[in-house]
Amino acid sequence: MPESNEVALIVGGGPGISASCARLFADEGMRVAVAARNPDKPVLEKLEQTHHIRRYACDASDPAAVVALFQKVAADLGAPRLVVHNIDGRVPGIFRKGIAEADPGMVLDTLRNSSFSAFLVAQQATRLMLTNAPGRNGAKGTIIFTNASAAIKGYVKSGAFAMASHAKLGLAESMARELMPEGIHVVHVPIDAAIGWTHEDGTRAHRLAGTTVDDNMADPDYIAQAYLQLHRQHRSTWAFEVVLRPWVEKL
Amino acid sequence: MPESNEVALIVGGGPGISASCARLFADEGMRVAVAARNPDKPVLEKLEQTHHIRRYACDASDPAAVVALFQKVAADLGAPRLVVHNIDGRVPGIFRKGIAEADPGMVLDTLRNSSFSAFLVAQQATRLMLTNAPGRNGAKGTIIFTNASAAIKGYVKSGAFAMASHAKLGLAESMARELMPEGIHVVHVPIDAAIGWTHEDGTRAHRLAGTTVDDNMADPDYIAQAYLQLHRQHRSTWAFEVVLRPWVEKL
Amino acid sequence: MPESNEVALIVGGGPGISASCARLFADEGMRVAVAARNPDKPVLEKLEQTHHIRRYACDASDPAAVVALFQKVAADLGAPRLVVHNIDGRVPGIFRKGIAEADPGMVLDTLRNSSFSAFLVAQQATRLMLTNAPGRNGAKGTIIFTNASAAIKGYVKSGAFAMASHAKLGLAESMARELMPEGIHVVHVPIDAAIGWTHEDGTRAHRLAGTTVDDNMADPDYIAQAYLQLHRQHRSTWAFEVVLRPWVEKL
Amino acid sequence: MPESNEVALIVGGGPGISASCARLFADEGMRVAVAARNPDKPVLEKLEQTHHIRRYACDASDPAAVVALFQKVAADLGAPRLVVHNIDGRVPGIFRKGIAEADPGMVLDTLRNSSFSAFLVAQQATRLMLTNAPGRNGAKGTIIFTNASAAIKGYVKSGAFAMASHAKLGLAESMARELMPEGIHVVHVPIDAAIGWTHEDGTRAHRLAGTTVDDNMADPDYIAQAYLQLHRQHRSTWAFEVVLRPWVEKL
User: Fold this and answer.
1) Does residue C236 sit at the B interface (CB-CB below 8 Å)?
2) Closest to A16 in 3D by CA, of A247, A193, A137, A186
3) How far apart are CA B38 and CA B59, in angstroms?
4) Which chains lie within 8 Å of chain A at 3 or more CB pairs, if any?
5) CA torsion B218→B224→B230→B233, rounded to 10°?
6) In a 3-state reduction of DSSP, which class is residue D82?
7) Share of chain D above pLDDT 90, in %
8) CB atoms inside a 10 Å sphere around CB A114
9) pLDDT digit string (tens) for A112-141?
10) Given an 8 Å threshold on Cβ–Cβ distance, is B243 in contact with C239?
11) CA C6, CA C134: separation in Å to the nearest integer?
């Protein structure tokens, strides 16, 4: 069922889900673009060498920057058929801050980095995808929002992140209702776990420090695989939301 | 069970829920403050005359203005035991705009007006309430977030409002988990309907223009009554969320 | 807003929610019927003396018995305007039984006692209420389903109860969509807590053995109060579901 | 990642999802058993010839029959690693019956056919799977519950089916919490659509009579594919629930 030469754009450039997606999508024959605030991170430079990904600098919370990103990607590679928004967006200073303590400026920045950037990316993706012809699965394109379990449950001392994660869910729901009948597959994927990554030396971190339980972090290679399967789902049976969690995670 | 002389602060000053709450809370013996961008609206001036409410000017999306509001209310009336966040926050220009068309600046303004203002108000309310002694119902205070059904379902051509409404829900959930064990009752009330109001001449608008069905708009006097009951709920049996809808509304 | 002489029927006759409802409804001027497998329990005999309730014997999982119950209540007191289904239905032998261990016969009995009895009671209540004239709140009647938090979350080693509680929610949801536009207020109330009760000597049990935390069991007098408020809600703003939990309960 | 010679048991033998699953699982090298009340239906006889499936007669609402089924399958083919419960269970006489009209006996039969049979099948599957060694994906087995959108929304004039579908969800949730940490992947799949099937002559029915819109019924071949992917998910990232709906279905 795979299309050849599809263009995939991953917004967010970390060593976890973004890197795993870039590798898998390239291995499947897609032309892959990765956008990050700092595209010169070693993980992305290495992916350029090993998987021929294209790197783009973009502050995804800046409307003009997001417009420019999609224009460049479209000019360089063509209109994307798969766009993944993969930005957590938390300002570190708000971690574990109770409602009475959280800094308002950091709260607004978290909303901007996470939810507003999701809107900006989704808007540009939508505009381009609506002009695509349907592919073999009947879709003009797929937009995947990586999210946290904070999207479905507001945790203690995590108000700003709960706001931002819920907002991303709200956006995805509204878009799904609006765009699925137009042929764009919108998917919301809350990951209910810490996410592992691959070290520079190729070893993997899927284990919490000091624990002996395996698999207590989600392996991003399997997340990437789930995204690929979602992208290839036929429009006869589209999933809007898939919550992914390790077997040992409390449901 | 009512306390005498409790202080209630209503943020948002429209002729619907805010006005009905102000009337009811005052009739129940509370000292009522209403904050609005423009506190000189006729509906508020009239409430000052008839129900002795205090009016305050406040842009609730401005951190410093919200701090100042709570300081003034506390100085004038005392620390509030009941705070209602009653701001819709939609910028008119985004109504019925599809994801491809919505203006990014208006999307961010909607997030700021609705969700960020909810955070700012909730933060100041929390700080003051934590210092209250428990009342007869065992609570140090009640914080009620009025919301829309967009908080629980993202509608078509309504992405920005879905984001803002979901964010408000996420904030409320996180706060409920954090603050209920501290004695603050946090409640999220999505109203699944258009909301009626009272005209200047005292007549009511609870009917959509051109319809003959009665009660197809929610009567804000009954919403105010529900808020009062929620405020007085004993901490032995607190509700976190109540969705209110007219009997003829599609569930 | 209260109607005088309304008839209330409570199905289930325990010393917790049922007894508290019976007392409160009678104190509010309603004529109260309580149905139980064994109507000769001391708690019900006492309520007959102190609050003039009528006691009825009924196995609510038996279709013919439920038909007979409603006929008798209607003949004795009139058509009920408020019916509360207040049956837990768990067969004790399935408590804390894992999926591999639970006895199939007990699982089916739990479904029958809880969900099927809810259907039978709701069916008869619906038939009678549809013939009522609307009351002051615009309703022909109110049907309240007491449920457990197992209705919204399936717990470990609790499969049969999860099935039964979810089924009751499904019934309530379908009925709400069908009957609210007909003027019958359908309400689903999961109680997310152990529920206290009143001892024979009048002392109350709202505290788990061995704990010092107050209010860690839901006080059924406050639950009854919530039911009364729900019953009196105007049809302009009906709540379908209210989850009640003590302030110290984990959300 | 596929295991060779895995045993799959499909309970329910219709020409839609069950037949599509049987074909796909057999094509992937699994040994496939299909259980149905009437195993002599042409669709199953044909699958025996073309895909070497084994056919078993079983009334899945009969505890002894379900025990016997699993014993026979285990003896004939080995312990299953994949079990699909694929029974709708509605008694035709309750279709479109309002709460006041539904026949109580048919309501109980629907609960028994759908939810109770799901429990019986899940219990036997669990007992066998717990003795399996983990496979390449880290799982001892996968149990998939096909369900309807009535599991997540109770529709009008559909109370019995809402009860049965919700009960199945409750069972799945409880089992997921209990069994995932034991290595059994439990998945709940509500299909939010009418489901197509393949006619005897090989043509497909994925279109509602009288419509011109393509894909307005879910294609069971794609549902089967989703089930296979879920079965092969690594335990690092398990999905508990996937709602599948056609692109044109109202979300």
Assistant:
1) yes
2) A193
3) 9
4) B, D
5) -130
6) strand
7) 84
8) 27
9) 999 999 999 999 999 999 999 999 999 999
10) yes
11) 12
d(CA B89, CA B110): 5
Nearest-CA residue of chain B relative to C193?
A: B237
Task: Return the C-alpha torsion angle D210, D214, D217, D218, nearest 10.
Answer: 170
Cβ pair A251:D226 closer than 8 A: no
Query: Quick check: helix, strand or coil at residue B248?
Result: coil
Work out the end-to-end distance of chain A between its first and last CA atoms, rounded to an integer number of angstroms.
Answer: 33
Ramachandran region, residue A202 (left: φ > 0; alpha: ψ -120 to 50; beta: rest): left
Q: Which residues of A touch B150 (CB under 8 A)?
A: 170
Band (A217; pLDDT cuts 50, 70, 90): confident
Phi and psi at residue D217, in whole multiples of 5°? -120, 145
Least confident among B62-76, C205-219, D44-58 = C205-219
What's the pTM? 0.96
- So what's the ipTM on this one? 0.95
**Taking the mean position of all CA atoms in its chain, how far away is CA D186?**
12
| A-B C-beta contacts closer than 8 Å | 157
Q: Which tokens is C153 given?
A: 């979350």
- Measured CA to CA, the distance from residue A176 to residue B155 in angstroms comes to 9
Collapsing DSSP to helix, strand or coil, C197 comes out as strand
Contacts of A102 in chain B (CB under 8 A): 119, 123
pLDDT in tens, A39-82: 999 999 999 999 999 999 999 999 999 999 999 999 999 999 99
Which of C107, C159, C166 lies closest to D166 in CB terms? C166
Of C104, C115, C175, the CB nearest to D99: C175
| In the predicted structure, residue D211 carries a pLDDT above the cut 70 | no
Mean pLDDT of A220-239: 96
Distance CA C116, CA C114 (A): 6
pLDDT, residue C1, reads: 43
pLDDT at A229 over 90: yes
When mean pLDDT is compared across A78-87, B234-243, D211-220, the lowest value belongs to D211-220
Token pair of C66, please? 């439920």
Sign of the C-alpha dihedral, residues C132, C134, C137, C138?
A: positive
The residue that leads in pLDDT, A207 or B20, is B20
Please give the sequence-ordered ranges of beta strands (E in DSSP) within chain B, or none if there are none: 7-11, 31-36, 54-57, 82-85, 141-148, 184-191, 197-198, 204-205, 238-245
Judged by CB atoms closer than 8 Å, whether chains meet at C174 and D168 is answered as: no
Mean per-residue pLDDT, B41-67: 97
Measured between beta carbons, the chain A residues lying within 8 angstroms of D237 are 191, 193, 218-219, 222-223, 226, 244-246
Gap between the Cα atoms of A119 and A85, Å rounded: 10
CA–CA gap between residue A230 and residue A232 (Å, rounded): 5
Beta D31-36 vs D54-57: how paired, if at all? parallel
Q: How confident is the model at residue B212 (pLDDT cuts 50, 70, 90)?
A: very low
Q: Give pLDDT tens digits for B136-146.
A: 999 999 999 99
Residue A243 makes CB contacts below 8 A (sequence gap 6+) with A149, A152, A189, A190, A191, A192, D239, D240, D241
